[in-house]
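hey can u run this one w/ FE2/S2 (inorganic) cluster bound, need the structure tokens asap thx
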Amino acid sequence: MKLTLRVWRQKNADAPGAMSTYEVDGISQDMSFLEMLDTLNEELILAGDDPVAFDHDCREGICGACSLVINGDAHGPERTTTCQLHMRSFEDGDTIDIEPWRASAFPVVKDLVVDRSAFDRIIQAGGYISAPTGTAPEAHATPVPKPDADFAFEHAECIGCGACVAACPNGSAMLFTSAKINHLNVLPQGAPERETRVLDMVGQMDSEGFGGCTLTGECATACPKGIPLPSISAMNKEWLRATRKVHR
Ligand code: FES
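ok here u go:
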């Protein structure tokens, strides 16, 4: 395949950015999107040019590091992570626009790399359980009803990639935050911090400059792990419950 790539290039957070156009040839349909970018970068390096900076780690769809807006869609045309997107989703001769996540809470570091440490700070605010250290407890010592276990697993699938924020017209992080709160709040292990978790994590989310949710639903559509939109209403219920309990 021969492709025209229009790639966002930006030296650093303070420098102005612009789209640069590159031609790549000999791209196999079996390549992943990131392998296609590797090919571009090999050519840029051989020509003595600065390679395109982009985030990646596992390349297996589990770490959440990869983060590209491709032709206007977070992670591109398939409902998957950028690293699991393959070139068979494109046609020979296509022009592909590649941009970083666009959100004021995710400032550009360089080219296609953005700073997602706001997510880390939301997790640090309450995305954990307090457990005494020691040997691992017997797995069946704490019974969990099957619907609660399924609910927890569904929300624990969030890999924190930030596609929800990039897809949302408000730059809202409510789908991410709700997934992280819900998967712990529904379990007995998460009960001791149930109220402080939701209040602290939502407070941190608000202080990071993410927008509010207007139930557009783009976040759930873009999420590569299928975190459902009602996750946000479940978080709102948790927040109201915690607020009432703290004020009582
Ligand atoms: S590189 Fe890890 S999910 Fe894409």
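The first strand starts at residue 3 and ends at 9. anyway lmk if its weird
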